[in-house]
Amino acid sequence: MNSLLLAGGRVIDPANGFDSVADVLIVDGKISAIGSGTAANVPPECERMDVSGLVVCPGLIDLHVHLREPGQAAKETIATGTLAAARGGFTSIVCMPNTSPAIDNSGTVALIHERARKEALVNVFVAGAITKNIAGEELAPIGSLKRAGVVAITDDGHCVQNNDLMRRALEYARMFDLPVMDHCQDYSLVTDGVVNEGYWSMALGLRGWPPAGEEMIVARNILLAETTGARIHCQHLSTAGSVELLRQAKKRGIPISGEACPHHFTLTDAAIAGSEKFWNQDGPGIFGFDSKRQAPPAWPSYDTNFKMNPPLRSSRDREAVLEGISDGTIEILCSDHAPHCDYEKEVEFDHAPFGITGLETELALCLMQLYHTKRLGLSEIIARFTSGPARLLGLRKGTLLPGADADVTVFDPDRAWVFDKGASGSKSVNSPFYGWTLRGKAVAAIVGGQKVWTE
Ligand SMILES: [Zn+2]
């Protein structure tokens, strides 16, 4: 018998409304018991881990991760991506299908499952493509993807532009009870935009990516969710308009949901003009960097680690996303972890690929922007990383109920630490947050009762 006792932590399990100092006993990969008297009944050979002063919660789930395998192993692999996940406190991730080849058939799904079984440190769930080769022209075999075990379909990185094709995809998805996750981008409005359309795109001479380019597709998705009854999940929402559309649609009972990523509710487009402009204009108010006491992080203008899709928006959008998370409009938090090689990012801003790594910084950034600023309590934040994504995807995860898989995250919500390039699990280093002093850190990731990573 394999057993582990997590002793004396603050156990927070939003799915069961539990928040109390307690022990968690894990036996043979399952949660066996939770409570104050648990320690007295443990098997004699049980391993004991003192977690007093720390938070113990259901293993965190990130439903938006690019693992880059197969085909782009120079950026990331299943082994390195899942190490980064474990270091960030995540015990389950969902990998996106825009690999080479794309995950648009059952054979590639089986390949990922097989590699993940051998090499992954955490649970890897697979999202299949909506269309063949993510080309937006012809539907992927959605039924056979479902049989192969995908938990959702998405053309993430791309967006199905043909509304009729999207409608058919949704009808199939509904038939197979799969949520459709959508990267909301109207190509005719966005064209070749690289940053938020506004003052800074003008000042910096970079092509604008207008908020309406996202909102147009969010609105389309609301109408199609209403038409088909299929569940649509809007990925990485970045604009005030998107949040409001979602809020109103949810009030009307439409089966639609949304997610937000920490970079969109921490940074703004002023960051592309360099750190000085950012800290002067949009820095005040974000997690208490007091420039009088401590020099804030510095970076140059046109730093491509601030280029992502959708782009960083205005401070008004940032505030609206934070409000959307706080009032429950946005029920899921995730990273959109998107590793790229140095040589790909070390080019002119226009030519660099979109995306940043995020698995190791997202918990801290969420705690800093939501918990330490008193917008949300710990339980509400944890819910957005556990029961929220588990419910959307129908995963039997995100709970510490006795009998559940023993996927557990242990973290310190207050610990200050510096994100260091040399200490990252990811194969890529395209993060804007290196050198930042962050607050809140994972201490252990336990998957199926095994400590896959501890500090
Ligand atoms: Zn995307």
Quickly describe the structure.
The chain has 455 residues and is α/β, with parallel strands linked by helices. Helices cover 29% and strands 22% of the residues.
Describe it.
The model has no long low-confidence stretch (mean pLDDT 95). The protein is of the alpha/beta class. Helix 2 links the parallel strand 7 (90-95) and strand 8. The longest helix has 17 residues, at 212-228. The strands form three sheets. Strands 1, 2, 3, 4, 5, 16, 17 and 18 form an eight-stranded mixed sheet that branches. The chain has an eight-stranded parallel sheet with strand order 6-7-8-9-10-13-14-15, sandwiched between helices. A two-stranded parallel sheet has the order 11-12. Helix 2 runs parallel beside helix 3. The protein is built from 14 helices and 18 strands. The structure holds zinc ion (ZN). Zinc ion binds at residues 156-157, 183, 235-236.
Q: Into which percentage range does the β-strand content fall?
A: 15-25%
* Main sheet summary: 8 strands, mixed
The shape, in one word, is globular
Q: What's the pLDDT, averaged over the residues?
A: 95
Radius of gyration: 21 Å
User: SS-based structural class?
Assistant: alpha/beta
Helix content: 25-40%
Count of helical regions? 14
Distance between the termini: 25 Å
Ligands in the model, by name, code or SMILES, are: zinc ion
Show unreliable segments.
Answer: none
Query: How many beta strands in the DSSP annotation?
Result: 18
